[in-house]
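Figure 3 (text version): structure tokens given as input.
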């Protein structure tokens, strides 16, 4: 017996002709797939249309603006939406959990974990579990930009957390693209760091806060710590047991350490 679909899918994309089809295949059960394209100059839009997705185009400013554009502009078939990127895949377990969350309607928005996959290896330890608000009722939440990513805001019915992850193939475009993208991210993080004051960090959240709140406090504190690249590697590879992820885990920890150095260099460059 087929499962009734209860939510729409939004996919953000820019020049994703090599990665989009597998993302679309993972949500082929959905009867309302929307692609928000940042004016790709490859076959991204054509691939989406052939798979039955509706395509809208909007100039990319940041992730929050692009996701809000989708929520504000598109006439969705369903009241609930799930936001994906083109290098992310849905799972059957996550679909079932989303449908149950809609039925219960205990919260109007949900943090969703990502299962980070690099070169075919799940980075269970070194990448850890990163949560983002990706699933929500259209009228119950919005996005705001924070650093190079986005956070939830304007929550009307609280923020829940799902257990089942989506799969994130974050290295799908190769080494060169990763470095190019993270140099841009480093610029955004360097700007965000300038707005962080040690006196304004809610340290009490380290004790009373939820897991994602504690993580955000620790990130704010890390902005002000010396030897950040080395500390980042030590934290991920040793304290988080990244060495259990093998050679791939080691390489990932090195890359994340380099990313911290990018942020420091971008901050120095802006002075």
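Below: residues designed for each position.
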């Amino acid at each position: 017996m087929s499962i009734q679909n209860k939510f729409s899918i939004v996919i953000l994309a820019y020049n994703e002709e090599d990665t989009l089809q597998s993302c679309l295949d993972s949500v082929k059960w959905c009867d309302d797939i929307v692609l928000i394209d940042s004016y790709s100059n490859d076959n991204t839009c054509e691939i989406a249309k052939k798979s039955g997705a509706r395509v809208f185009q909007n100039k990319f400013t940041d992730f929050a603006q692009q996701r809000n554009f989708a929520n504000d502009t598109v006439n969705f078939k369903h009241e609930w939406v799930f936001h994906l990127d083109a290098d992310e895949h849905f799972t059957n377990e996550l679909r079932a959990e989303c449908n149950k969350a809609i039925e219960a309607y205990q919260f109007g928005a949900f943090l969703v974990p990502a299962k980070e996959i690099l070169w075919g290896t799940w980075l269970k330890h070194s990448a850890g579990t990163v949560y983002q608000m990706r699933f929500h009722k259209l009228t119950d939440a919005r996005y705001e930009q924070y650093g190079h990513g986005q956070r939830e805001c304007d929550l009307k019915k609280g923020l829940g957390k799902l257990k089942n992850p989506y799969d994130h193939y974050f290295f799908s475009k190769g080494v060169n693209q990763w470095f190019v993208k993270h140099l841009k991210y480093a610029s955004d993080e360097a700007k965000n760091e300038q707005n962080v004051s040690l006196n304004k960090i809610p340290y009490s959240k380290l004790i009373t806060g939820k897991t994602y709140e504690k993580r955000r406090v620790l990130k704010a504190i890390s902005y002000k710590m010396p030897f950040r690249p080395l500390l980042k590697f030590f934290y991920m590879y040793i304290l988080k047991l990244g060495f259990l992820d093998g050679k791939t885990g080691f390489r990932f920890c090195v890359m994340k350490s380099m990313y911290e150095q990018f942020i420091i260099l971008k901050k120095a460059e802006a002075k």
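The chain has nine helices and twelve strands.
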